[in-house]
Amino acid sequence: MKRIIFALLFIVLILVLIFYWLDYEMNAALNNKADGSNEYVVILGAKVKPGGIPSQSLKNRLDAAVDYLQKYPTVKAIVTGGQGADEDRTEASVMADYLIKHGIAEDRVLLEDQSTTTYENLLFAKELMPENTESITIISNDFHLKRATILARKLGLKADVVAAPTPKVVNTKSRIRERLAIIKAYTRGQ
User: Rounded to an integer, what distance in angstroms lies between the CA atom of residue 145 and that of residue 159?
Assistant: First the structure.
């Protein structure tokens, strides 16, 4: 009986350590801040509400993108995201409209509107860039950037980041779910 209890406590300890290690990894990814040196920024898609209204998570990403693109006027943006079953427009089209409405020139915005996952966001965005592109900037919510940079690396791209804040109402749930997604990205690549 003591062996079983010891084994269970050991497993719980390992799980707790993994939980905190993944939190550390998510936070450490934020240190690789973008400096405008990459030609392309990939803005990862997120939920669009009925009527083409960005969710708060997506709006935060777009506001961070507007600030970044205004600061670095030679950088081009690739907005990503297809149309979910409960969305009346593609995430990419809503994002492009938002950027243009907020002063980003239309010729700086490329649309990738077929993806349904973070991996596809990056894979399909890569197809829109010149073949010799080796490094990109990724804009997403803070919790999401570690996994996004792992996936970019698996696609042969170095990535620096611009972190958008995660809305408090979804922060805990997002960070817990993201831990599992990071493990999947490390082990399966998607």
Answer: 10
